[in-house]
């Protein structure tokens, strides 16, 4: 296998940026999910997992600029995430009082309606939403959903027929011809060794299949709705995820064994 795409998402639930290389350590990719928008009223982390409230976050993008985070609004306006006025601009646009947070507090939570309910009733419907603690499998204070690194294979993406950005992975792996879709299910507990051109070795320990919410079905920037991004998984890849239940999945989560630099083109071997 080899790495074909590397992505980081400086602000949770906003579009991110594709990079040629990225340093990775126990907390994940450098600058990935280092910020989040937090609802001032509830202190809940805003995420498009709750599309009725927060799907418009997917119309924004964020990138690293001179060491800071630059947010671009749907109209093209550039915002410095560290500027106190950014909270006001986002609050007015999103229709709720929010603040940009740079450190995940202990017990930080998000709200996540079941994707089945969102698909049945629509993105504007009031449906029951579970409250989930994030970052449980990750040291540090970033705003990842669970584990430090999220991977998905070309075999799985080809089977579903959607753009990789919908699943918001850090790493896309090109698999050999004939590889079965959802092969990531079989990697749990195994190690991926990334071989750099310079001889360096980075290792990732696969921990869980990645459960899917309604986010992949939503508009992403200029990309339209794509309900099959999750409906296909509901039909073809429901997995018993330890601690979470039987859920539609695509891709996998991984912990970092040996840190280093990941680069597009690096070879990857399963151990």
UniProtKB/TrEMBL annotation:
Residue intervals of the MOSC domain: 124-271
InterPro entries to which the protein is assigned, alphabetical: MoCF_Sase_C, MOCOS_middle, Pyrv_Knase-like_insert_dom_sf
Signal peptide boundaries: none
Designated name of the protein: MOSC domain-containing protein
């Amino acid at each position: 296998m080899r790495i074909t795409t590397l992505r980081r998402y400086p602000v949770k639930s906003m579009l991110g940026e594709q990079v040629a290389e990225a340093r990775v350590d126990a907390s994940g990719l450098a600058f990935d999910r280092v910020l989040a928008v937090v609802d001032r009223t509830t202190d809940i982390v805003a995420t498009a997992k709750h599309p009725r409230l927060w799907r418009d976050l997917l119309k924004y993008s964020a990138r690293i600029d001179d060491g800071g985070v630059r947010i671009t609004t749907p109209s093209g306006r550039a915002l410095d995430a560290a500027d106190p006025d950014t909270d006001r601009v986002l609050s007015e646009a999103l229709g709720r009082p929010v603040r940009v947070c740079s450190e995940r507090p202990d017990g930080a939570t998000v709200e996540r309606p079941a994707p089945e309910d969102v698909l049945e009733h629509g993105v504007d419907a009031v449906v029951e939403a579970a409250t989930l603690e994030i970052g449980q499998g990750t040291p540090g204070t970033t705003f990842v959903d669970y584990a430090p690194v999220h991977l998905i294979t070309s075999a799985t993406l080809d089977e579903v027929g959607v753009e990789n950005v919908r699943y918001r992975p850090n790493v896309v792996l090109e698999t050999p011809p004939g590889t079965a879709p959802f092969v990531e299910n079989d990697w749990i507990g195994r190690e991926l060794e990334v071989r750099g051109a310079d001889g360096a070795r980075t290792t990732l320990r696969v921990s869980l299949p990645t459960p899917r919410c309604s986010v992949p079905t939503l508009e992403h920037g200029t990309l339209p709705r794509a309900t099959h991004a999750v409906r296909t998984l509901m039909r073809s890849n429901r997995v018993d995820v330890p601690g979470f239940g039987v859920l539609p999945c695509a891709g996998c989560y991984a912990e970092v064994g040996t840190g280093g630099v990941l680069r597009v083109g690096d070879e990857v071997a399963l151990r």
